[in-house]
Amino acid sequence: MQGKIPLPENQPVAVNALRTKRAEITGQIAMHEREVDRLRAELVHLDATMRLFDPGTDPAAIEPLRRFPRRTEYFARGEVTRRVYDALREAPDVRAQTLADQAMRDKGMPETDRALRQEFVYRFLNVMHDMKRRKNLVKVGHGQGVRFTLPPKAPSLL
Q1: Beta bridge partners of 148
Q2: With a threshold of 0.70, does the pTM exceed it?
Q3: Separation CA 156–CA 56 (nearest Å)
Q4: Domain count, the chain
Q5: Which residues form the domain of 45?
Q6: pLDDT of amino acid 56
Q7: Is 147 exposed, middle or buried (0-12, 13-18, 19+ CB in 10 A)?
Q8: What is the phi/psi pair of residue 84, to 5°?
Q9: Pair 150, 90: CB distance under 8 Å
Q10: Which of 98, 100, 92 is nearest to 149 (CA)?
Q11: Which of 31, 54, 85, 96 sits a CA distance of 20 to 30 A from 48?
Q12: pLDDT tens for residues 3-46?
């Protein structure tokens, strides 16, 4: 009987359910630990290959790519895009930091939580860069002070 956990006699149903859940979670942890070990081994081989081609390279200096979550529990579907367009109705250009601060106030989040604020800023930047790629926004400036604005309208030919 694979997958079944031997249960002690005379245990309440809740305790048995908790034991089963714990066994499931520890199994998932073991599975993910094996995956992490496999990825670390791949990384060692990749680093060695890079050193073969360029002995002066320092693989540890290469920053990992940041993966942005596709969805977040803080914003409803399309809410970030709506907030960007709403802000552009009020002002000629917007900054992700300003939008993130306003969103945190609207949602009652503590403004002192730096990690949460940074997550909000990344979320707005990610969406605004995607809107720029689709030619719905124009990027103004670079670095910390980057702003986004609507593209100029094409002149009418009529």
Answers
A1: 94, 139
A2: no
A3: 57
A4: 2
A5: 13-61
A6: 92
A7: middle
A8: -65, -50
A9: no
A10: 92
A11: 31
A12: 666 655 667 888 888 999 999 999 999 999 999 999 999 999 99
